[in-house]
Amino acid sequence: MTAIVNPTPFFSLVSAILILSNLCLNEAQTTGFGVELIHRDSPKSPFYNPIETTYDRVTNAVRRTFSRVNRFKPTFVLVEGAKSGITVGSGEYLMNISIGTPAFEIVAVADTGSDLVWTQCKPCSKCFEQEAPIFDPGRSTTYNPISCDASQCQNLTETGCSSNNTCQYSVTYADNTYSIGDVAVDTITLASTTGSPVSFPNTVIGCGHDNYQETDGKNSGVIGLGGDEFSLISQMGSSIAGKFSYCLLPITETTKSSEMNFGSSALLSGTGVVSTPLIKLASFPSFYYLHLEAVSVGTKRINYTDVSLGKPDTKGNIIIDSGTTLTLLPSGIHLKLESAVAGQINATRVHVPEINSLCYDAKTEFAVPDITMHFAGADVKLQRSNTFISVSDNVTCLAIVSYGDLSVYGNVAQANFLVGYDTEKKTVSFKPTDCSKN
């Protein structure tokens, strides 16, 4: 006897899923939403080490700055495997997201310096050990591999093709971490801090079947939040009106989580908001560039163009990056800045090899000068906690360093500011904020 199956319940379920997805997207557009941004040293983080002191964590974060800055290379090449400069373990913040239907939760490095969202997937030809279960795409009803002739595959650079006509990717990072696997679409779900979870169907992801990472067991992959076409931010697109923001807690406050907002929740308004153009460079589309005109130390202004960089000063001369701890300036400008700061501090200098910056004996409290970053159209006055960090009980160091000719606006400088990105209007805005109360 042949069983007769009534298709109505199935189509009702599909319709319900589509309606819920549309409701989620409508909520993202009209009311916005927020997600938890977990510092890697938070007790909520898989990287958390209860034995470490606050100073251990600060020193480690400083070291990660210098391991991370090599990311200023092309960030994502399929199959050919050009290195993305980030080191997977170097990101300072993590996000919990869910992939597939039913939703499968992963914890991954949230990175504004790369684009692809990828996770380890079953079956593994080679996977690094991770504490959490590995995503099985065969269990997701919304997972679909992308064929080699699909537009998404065609739009990716240097695509590869498997024997079964599935689009393949290969990404390698500066610490020799790599991931190789299938390019697919699936539903990404974010757990909102302000309401119901928000889902984004048909999001392009990387499903890694051959992966390597130096440190096992800590995270499942990378959430690319950069500026190129296939980052999570870009794929959210019109559903968040191109807007996201974050409010980062100071580096020493790791017991609480920071927050990242999207859509209308990411709007900055009120007293103190300043905005500067967001610049996209074709040669490095993943990175968010600003134009830094000068830095002031007290009343002394140091113009960015005052110092010969060996190349013309062009628009878009500094990357803003939440995953880099310290702020980096080209050596010539940094020397002038350091000289100006040292000239206004009455304290005993000490040498700290790990940071190679201006450091002082902090057994006796001392005053520091105001430092202001003059971005195009936006003067951002920094607080002491943005410019100096304590690396031990008795030593405090300038959190602005030199690393060749690289310019990066790091997360210490951004702490206790609401930082809003509008990728449609092409602006980045800053508002002084107590992020512990945000």
Notable traits:
438 residues, alpha+beta, 4-stranded mixed sheet, disordered N terminus
Structural topology:
Blueprint: H1 8-30, E1 33-39, H2 54-68, E2 83-84, E3 93-99, E4 104-111, E5 118-120, E6 144-145, H3 151-155, E7 160-161, E8 167-173, E9 178-190, E10 198-212, E11 221-224, H4 232-236, E12 243-247, E13 258-262, E14 274-277, E15 279-281, E16 284-290, E17 292-297, E18 300-303, E19 318-320, E20 327-329, H5 331-342, E21 349-350, E22 359-361, E23 371-375, E24 378-382, H6 384-387, E25 388-392, E26 395-398, E27 400-402, E28 408-409, H7 411-414, E29 417-422, E30 427-432
Parallel strand pairs: 2-8, 4-11, 5-10, 19-28, 20-27
Antiparallel strand pairs: 1-3, 1-13, 3-4, 3-9, 5-11, 6-9, 7-8, 8-9, 9-10, 12-13, 12-29, 14-30, 15-16, 16-19, 17-18, 17-23, 21-22, 22-26, 23-24, 25-26, 29-30
Write out the strand line-up for the largest beta sheet, numbering strands in chain order: 3-4-11-5-10-9
Structural class assignment:
alpha+beta
Mean pLDDT across the residues is 83
Hey, roughly how much beta strand do the residues contain?
A: 25-35%
Shape type? globular
Helix content, binned percent: 10-25%
Unreliable sequence segments: 1-23, 73-90, 306-312
Cα(first) to Cα(last) distance is 64 Å
Q: What oligomeric state do these chains adopt?
A: single chain
How many strands appear in the DSSP assignment? 30
Query: What is the count of DSSP helices, taking H or I runs of 4+ residues?
Result: 7
Q: What about the largest sheet?
A: 6 strands, mixed, barrel
Give the C-alpha Rg: 23 Å
